Amino acid sequence: PAQAQTPAAWSPPPASARCPSRWGPNDRRGSMNLMTPARMRDASALIREGRKIEIGHVLAQSMPFFGTRRFDVHLKQTYMNPQANRRGSNEELVVGEIAQIGTQFDCFPHQTIGDETYNCVNVPSIMTRGGFTEMGVDTIGTIMTRGVLIDVAGLKGVQTLPDTYEITPEDLQQALNRQRVELREGDAMIINTGWAHLWGRENARYVAGCPGIGVAAAEWLIARNPLLLGADNWPVECAPSRTMPDASLPVHQIALVVHGVHLLENLKLDELVASGRSEFCFVMQPLRMQGFTGSTVAPAAIF
Ligand code: UVW
Q1: CA 274 to centroid of ligand 1, rounded, Å
Q2: DSSP the chain
Q3: What is the pLDDT of residues 43-55, one digit of tens each?
């Protein structure tokens, strides 16, 4: 599907329009406030067959990396203990941005508008050598909620949306209509662009740009109160933005900083798409790394 580019100036809303957030001036959890016991119980009711599909990629040195990110693995030498049972031992030493590689979950300190992140928290004031003192990924915990797949590539009848195709609110609504599923507050809202087809095959193209949601589609989804927004591309959003070419990753600012909605990137959705399931129990445990901006993760769809 061809798209006309309609350039528009965009700048993030001023602090007076962003803060306090809908959760109050002292809130640090944003969309994670929707992770309630009732929502977890309702999500468990979606498990009927007992089938589990991994929707994260394997963390591997062959995966694509955004910018200068890296993942170097050094196997630490096997040693043999001197005792009679001759126990050997192997492990790995890793050098890499473990918060921001592979299938990854973004927390609020990851992005800013100027010096501020979610709820106008001044980022330098929470930044220490030991990590961020507030809103780090260690504060997230296990996520279990209803997941909804929005298959835009399927709607368009393609394996992969064209490079830099910008998904509109109409695309999202049409995809949901086609799949006969609706969004509910607290859902993990997950978009299939098909871009993951390039993962490990065309890594340079994968990170050069990508199809994804535009600002209008992000605002449309956020108005439906997601627990998180996820996609099978590296930034969830279309990059570079087609309708707002003067802005760098505007959906990152809108979701994380303006509305306190977490992002989940680099999903692997081919098996879930093939299963025909649009609604499932979404489960994920971000690593509890103290004060980190995010975490590499291994989410699953269970139904
Ligand atoms: C950047 O931080 C630039 O991107 P992402 O959050 O998509 O990894």
Answers
A1: 28
A2: -----------PPPHHHH-SBTTBTT---GGGGG--HHHHHHHHTT-SS--EEE-B----TTS--STT--EEEEEEEEEE-SSTT--EEEEEEEEE-TTSSSSEEE-GGG--BTTEEGGGEEHHHHEETTEESSS-GGGT--EEEEEEEEEHHHHHT-SSPPTT-EE-HHHHHHHHHHHT----TT-EEEEE-SGGGGTTTSHHHHHH-B-EE-HHHHHHHHTT--SEEEESSSSSB-BS-SS-TTSSSHHHIIIIIII--EEEESB--HHHHHHT--EEEEEE-----TT-SEEE---EEE-
A3: 999 999 999 999 9
pLDDT digits (tens, 9 = 90+) for 260-295: 999 999 999 999 999 999 999 999 999 999 999 999
In order of start, what are the domains of the chain with their CATH numbers?
15-69+98-302 (3.50.30.50)
Ligand 1 first shell, C-beta below 6 A: 66, 100, 106, 234-235, 249, 265
Give the Å distance between the CA of 25 and the centre of ligand 1.
26
Report how far ligand 1's centroid is from the alpha carbon of 30 (Å): 19
Does the interface predicted TM-score (ipTM) exceed 0.90?
A: yes
* Closest residue by CA, ligand 1 atom 4: 235
